[in-house]
Amino acid sequence: MFETFELYTLQQYWWIIISLLASLLVFLMFVQGGQTLIYQLGKTETERSLIINTLGRKWELTFTTLVTFGGAFFASFPLFYSTSFGGAYWVWMAILFAFVIQAISYEYRTKPANFLGRKTYEVFLFLNGLLGTILIGTAVGTFFNGANFSVDKMNLTNIYDSAISRWETPFHGLEAVLNIHNVALGLSVFFLARVLGILYIVNSVNEENILVRARRQMWNNAVPFLVFFLYFVIYLLLKQGFAVNPETGEIFMEKYKYLHNLLQMPVVLILFLAGVAGVLYGISSFLFCRSRKAIWFGGAGTVLAVFSLLLIAGLNNTAYYPSLHNLQHSLTIRNSSSSHYTLTAMSYVSLFVPVVIAYIYVAWKSINNKPIEKSDLDDDSSHIY
Amino acid sequence: MTEAFDYSLIDWSRAQFALTAMYHWIFVPLTLGLGFIMAIMETIYVRTGNPEWKRITKFWMTIFGINFAIGVATGIILEFEFGTNWSNYSWFVGDIFGAPLAIEGIMAFFLESTFIAVMFFGWNKVSKKFHLVSTWLVAFGASLSALWILVANAWMQLPVGMKFNPETARNEMHNFWDVLLSPMAVSKFTHTISSSYLLAAIVVIGISSWYLLRKRHIVFAKRSIVVAAVFGLITSIFTILTGDYSARVVAQNQPMKFAAFEGLYVGQTRAPLVAIGVMSTSPEDPDNENIKDFVFKIEIPNFLSYMAFQDINAFVPGIRDLMEGNEKYNIPSAAEKIARGKLAIDALAEFKLAKEAQDQAKMDEARQILDENFQYFGYGYFVDDPSRLVPSVPITFYSFHIMVALGMWFMMFFAIVLLLVYKGKISQSKFWLTIGIVNIPLAYIASQSGWITAEMGRQPWVIQDLMPTMAAVSRLDTNAVITTFILFGVVFTTLLIAELKIMFKQIKIGPKQEGGH
């Protein structure tokens, strides 16, 4: 089936898959958001343990999605992998460290003789939530605002200096934080993760004190989220974008490019509006109707909104990783992808994704079938973090 | 053109990858093997309904969980380091390497991480059978994860199923099945996975031996030993058989690495195998200090020829044959390969210029030269210093021999333990129980030695004959890599200390009486 598709069709298909994985990742970062709220929502040791235990049942799903996102990006658009990861070294390394310290924290926090003490592991969880979300958001901001790199595949023939992708600033990615538009996206992701974290916790924890504090925290996080998100979106829709001439491959600046993308792909526009509406409905149904199922609206809305934003970054003849050093070195889904054969082989593998989602759903339901309570923490027969 | 290559950048980038890979590999083999041991134990529990087996299963799950967390933490770095530190490599091979990595994520990691939640949190939430299935799926998911990353590693040692495309300056996959089922992939997967199972069996026996010596948790320890010894004996035999196959695959495809395994400087027919050897500190070859002579060695006549080619009369090339060439056996010299590699590299540059000039004739000509010489493409980067084509012989020799010797020893040990169990004397055999504890660090040494053999032995190649480390590395400031190396070293060492302290404490506490994790 897939082998009959044109290369460009497969490239678009894989950009859609990457966008979907990224949007699921942002939704699942409710774990990270929740980790930054442990002390604000939990005032006693038991309350904090309740929050950590409910988040702990999902941390691995987020982690695995991040790893799969990385692997899928490598497989489908390897030039991005080599250019961005090898270039924006410090940003990616900081993100990695933030996730390394998360992976052990749940398991080790309450174990006897854990060397660093319970508090240190809680600080690790906080740092993961803070840095992981802001830095990933800021890094994705460069999809719209560009980065300082050059690419010349023929450097391979210079045996003394063969690097194909080169970073053209000495800061190796740190300069991304000087662009306020990137940072606005980073902060949007951070506050959105906290909003989703609150919605997940109220859905999965049965503890009145936590529910009361959650409502207050929702105001504190939903407002800054909306401010940064609206700033980011309005700026994005009004700014010049990095367009590609499909005939020649030439990159040029186009006014209102991202707005045009939404208008020229009405399905994406509908998805985007539905996503934003879902997030807003999720927040308001919790705030005003005290709904504890708002995570499903907020989560689905997040997936749709992030998915559509990434689609307009790469589809409709747009350069998804613009080079500020040389516009013509910008990465597009056409010039940075794997070959037709590899994309075809992987497309068959992608057919397993619904199966994966189905068993994740079954496992999720079986573990989260009822909210966690104080008594569960004393249940000696279960695994407690 | 002046030489401007910064070798310290390569060395630090290699050191960083080695550091993260070796730390990762401390934790992974135990979880690979323990997954199946737990699954077998839980199966016995479900079949017999005996709660003692549930208690046994849960204890080993605790040990599994502590290891798994840190294995995940150290694993994510490796995936991203292909891009951060080996940027050229990730483009040059991304078309092949990326696919197994993506499949690993979609098919294996999710399986593992989803059902691990059921395994840990589902004891009272799902049925016994669903729980058991989840434990088995975790075990299979872990081994499936290993499959894909090992396929990718095998491809780097034996690049097959692809064709170089000068238009994109990269290798492109032409046959997925050739990549998946290459002899290197089969041998690497089967050998790595079986040796991991072996390591887990050694750890289970070692910890159980400690309980028996202390006369604690007697029933628990004896039952654990029975399961682990049976599992260990079977997997150790399999490890030795797959190891033998791996050596043959290496002999046929990576002759330099094979020569380094044995410190074989001058090739010969009826080549003997060095069973035990001590290398001299002085170099055998004045041009290359990596190549050492032996001050002492015990040899098994003809065995190396037999091991490599299943023929005692077969010629096994030595390092000198591979560097200086050997006409009789049709082995080209390093100088010839370097010249042909340089031709291929220059032809790629010519191809690009001809394409820009839209000169089809020149393009065809360049492409032909490239195709004819592409098998030596990577050698073209060694025009200034061919001696870098030889890996460190002492490190490769010692790590290979330590791995083989310990592998043989473990097989004998499992047989002895099973015999003692059969005779009902295991809990009284203080000597063998002590050996059981001593074996734990030895198993880790063997496991690490295996990877050192595989990865140091293939130097300087990132992709055998096609891309050396110097052409693969990201263009970073050496100090940046040194900084992250130190950070990784500090963080991983801290986490390792935490992990060991927690493990020792859990072992001291022992299995809980009722349920409890």
User: Approximately what portion of the residues of chain B adopt beta-strand conformation?
Assistant: 5-15%
Low-confidence stretches of chain A: none
- Characterize the biggest β-sheet of chain A: 2 strands, antiparallel
Shape of chain A: globular
Oligomeric state of shown chains:
heterodimer
Determine the number of helices of chain B (DSSP H or I, runs of at least 4 residues): 17
Order of helices and strands of chain B: HHHHHEEHHHHEEEHEHHHHHEEHH
Please, what is the average pLDDT of chain A? 94
Main beta-sheet strand count, sense and barrel state of chain B: 2 strands, antiparallel
First CA to last CA of chain B: what distance? Answer: 65 Å
Number of domains of chain A: 1
The string of secondary-structure elements of chain A, in order, is HHHHHHHHEEHHEEHHHHHH
Percentage beta strand of chain A: under 5%
| Major beta sheet, strand line-up of chain B | 1-2
Structural class of chain B: mainly alpha
Outline of chain B, from the CA principal axes?
globular
Number of helices of chain A: 16
Question: Fraction of residues of chain A in helices?
Answer: 55-70%
Structural class of chain A: mainly alpha
| Total number of strands of chain B | 8
Report helical residue fraction of chain B: over 70%
Detailed description of the structure:
The complex is a heterodimer of chains A (385) and B (517). With 385 residues, chain A is mainly alpha-helical. Chain A has one domain. Helices cover 67% and strands 4% of the residues of chain A. Chain A contains 16 helices and four strands. In chain A, strands 1-2 form a two-stranded antiparallel ribbon. Chain A has a two-stranded antiparallel sheet with strand order 3-4. In chain A, β3 and β4 form a beta hairpin. The model of chain A has no long low-confidence stretch (mean pLDDT 94). With 517 residues, chain B is mainly α. In chain B, 70% of the residues lie in helices and 8% in strands. Chain B has 17 helices and eight strands. Chain B has a two-stranded antiparallel ribbon with strand order 1-2. The radius of gyration of chain B is 25 Å and the shape is globular. The model of chain B has no long low-confidence stretch (mean pLDDT 93). Chains A and B meet through α5, α6, α7, β2 and α14 of A and α2, α3, α4, β2 and α12 of B.
